């Protein structure tokens, strides 16, 4: 039975309460662009200051992901955790509107990172609890739609605000108000379910993990997700070595490394991109509009990625998406060799960043299907925890590397390194496909048959999920 990975709902809105996720995504998407501009324009900081802020934020996200995961397991109150998450954003955005030093901004941004994982799993578990098995594909698709619509609205709000005013601090108050709207809507619009889902159930639903991956696009970083909590007691190193030996002949380590390189390159690029646009002479409103092109392209392309994966296979799509993104990074590096006027720089980056948005939409769906395929008959909760933890490490690594490269002062080098990391990941994806084919069909098929499995990988994923 083929897996129906829906990326466009047959009903646009599965439940009215899903509208509560539009304002919070608008707030976080707008904030993702406001913060570096606040450092660069209002506080007269530098690219290095943006990188330091991102490093502190990403480090807080990683450290607190396990803590919030343990708390949400022990106290399965989905509504409460979402309200803590959303209202916390509102309070902290409001406090940031009165900031006058970069040091104070560092501290508040780190606290934002500390509460960011609070609602990371609650929204997906809430959908699992509120919808029947038959309704869940539409529910998760609707949730994704609300996320994408909110992201576009948030960046558009930033564009029109900065077009009319240069008061970035006051814009933070508006974003805080949007976060509070979602908190109030969640508190009064949703009741807790009598039956509670467990985090391990999320890994059995590709739509759930896919939607969870997409909720982080506002911050453009992966928030680690641990369906099975990591054990750090005695013997952890021995268990790790035993696990590593067992994985040597499986494609999962190759997928992890390739995903790590993808996330590392993406974070390195995204953290440096807004300072680059500012250095190229673009106004704050133009920088917001460039980000609109990225979010709009994701929203436009994402609904078709499920069908593309079914027809072409996720292996081929993940290669094309990573290759297209690497070309976008290298093209941006090429822009640094050209003495653009401000209008020409705006138009060139508007086009390239839109292409990068389309590529990430394709990559997200294709890589998710490949990941699910590799989890057949295995401890999916632990493996997904390892994979997303590496995503968090890549987020910190990308921010730190951006800070180091800022000392050289070369955006060109950053974009070349970002593109190079993605090109290095391409043979790893190929090796993962070969390893899967060999494991699934035996060495004979690998030696004489096609490099990709003849059976649609999505079918394998669907069968595995049905069996689980």
Explained architecture:
By secondary structure, the chain is mainly α. It has a single domain (16-224, 235-467), classed as Growth Hormone, Chain: A. 76% of the residues lie in helices and 0% in strands. Helix 3 (78-96) runs antiparallel to helix 4 (102-115) and helix 3 (78-96) runs antiparallel to helix 5 (122-130). The longest helix has 33 residues, at 342-374.
Keywords:
0% strand; single chain; mainly alpha; 468 residues; Growth Hormone, Chain: A; 18 helices
Helices and strands, with pairings:
Blueprint: H1 21-42, H2 47-74, H3 78-96, H4 102-115, H5 122-130, H6 136-164, H7 168-189, H8 199-202, H9 206-214, H10 236-247, H11 252-279, H12 284-312, H13 314-335, H14 342-374, H15 380-408, H16 411-441, H17 443-448, H18 457-467
Helix pairs in contact: 1-6, 1-7, 1-11, 2-4, 2-11, 2-15, 3-4, 3-5, 3-7, 6-9, 6-12, 9-14, 11-14, 11-15, 11-16, 12-13, 12-14, 13-14, 13-16, 14-18
CATH superfamily: MFS general substrate transporter like domains
Taken together, the total number of domains comes to: 1
Note the main sheet: none
Give the N-to-C terminal Cα separation: 14 Å
Strand content: under 5%
Helix/strand order: HHHHHHHHHHHHHHHHHH
- CATH fold category name: Growth Hormone, Chain: A
C-alpha-based Rg, rounded: 21 Å
CATH level-two architecture: Up-down Bundle
CATH class: Mainly Alpha
Count of DSSP H/I helices: 18
- State the share of residues found in helices, binned by percent: over 70%
Task: Give the averaged pLDDT, no decimals.
Answer: 83
Shape, per Cα inertia axes: globular
Strand count: 0
Q: Which structural class do you get from the secondary structure elements?
A: mainly alpha
Low-confidence stretches: 446-468
């Amino acid at each position: 039975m083929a897996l129906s990975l829906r990326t466009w709902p047959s009903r646009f809105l599965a439940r009215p309460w899903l509208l509560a996720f539009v304002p919070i995504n608008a707030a976080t998407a707008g904030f993702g662009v406001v913060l570096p501009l606040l450092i660069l324009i209002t506080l007269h900081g530098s690219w290095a200051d943006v990188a330091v802020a991102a490093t502190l934020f990403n480090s807080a996200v990683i450290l607190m992901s396990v803590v919030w995961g343990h708390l949400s397991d022990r106290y399965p109150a989905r509504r409460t955790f979402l309200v803590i998450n959303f209202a916390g954003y509102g309070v902290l955005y409001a406090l940031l509107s009165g900031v006058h030093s970069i040091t104070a901004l560092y501290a508040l941004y780190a606290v934002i990172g500390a509460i960011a994982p609070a609602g990371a799993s609650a929204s997906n578990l809430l959908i699992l609890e509120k919808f029947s098995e038959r309704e869940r594909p539409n529910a998760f698709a609707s949730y994704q739609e609300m996320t994408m619509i909110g992201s576009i609205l948030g960046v558009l709000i930033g564009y029109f605000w900065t077009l009319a005013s240069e008061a970035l601090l006051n814009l933070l108050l508006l974003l805080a108000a949007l976060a509070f709207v979602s908190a109030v809507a969640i508190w009064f619009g949703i009741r807790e379910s009598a039956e509670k889902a467990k985090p391990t159930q999320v890994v059995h639903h590709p739509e759930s993990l896919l939607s969870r991956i997409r909720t982080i696009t506002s911050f453009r970083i992966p928030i680690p997700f641990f369906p099975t909590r990591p054990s750090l007691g005695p013997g952890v190193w021995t268990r790790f070595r035993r696990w590593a030996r067992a994985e040597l002949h499986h494609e999962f380590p190759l997928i992890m490394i390739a995903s790590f390189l993808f996330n590392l390159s993406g974070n390195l690029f995204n953290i440096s991109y807004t300072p680059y646009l500012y250095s190229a002479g673009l106004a704050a409103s133009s920088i917001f509009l460039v980000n609109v092109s990225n979010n709009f392209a994701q929203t436009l392309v994402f609904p078709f990625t499920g069908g593309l994966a079914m027809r072409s296979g996720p292996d081929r799509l993940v290669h094309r998406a990573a290759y297209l993104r690497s070309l976008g990074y290298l093209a941006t590096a090429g822009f640094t060799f050209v003495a653009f006027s401000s209008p020409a720089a705006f138009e060139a980056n508007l086009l390239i960043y839109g292409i990068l948005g389309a590529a990430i939409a394709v990559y997200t769906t294709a890589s998710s299907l490949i990941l699910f395929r590799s989890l057949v008959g295995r401890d999916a909760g632990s493996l997904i925890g390892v994979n997303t933890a590496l995503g968090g490490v890549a987020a910190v690594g990308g921010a730190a590397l951006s800070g180091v490269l800022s000392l050289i002062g070369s955006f060109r080098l950053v974009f070349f390194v970002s593109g190079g990391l993605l090109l290095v990941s391409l043979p790893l994806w190929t090796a993962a496909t070969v390893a899967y084919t060999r494991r699934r069909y035996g060495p004979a098929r690998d030696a004489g048959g096609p490099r990709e499995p003849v059976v649609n990988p999505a079918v394998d994923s669907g069968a595995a999920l049905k069996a689980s």
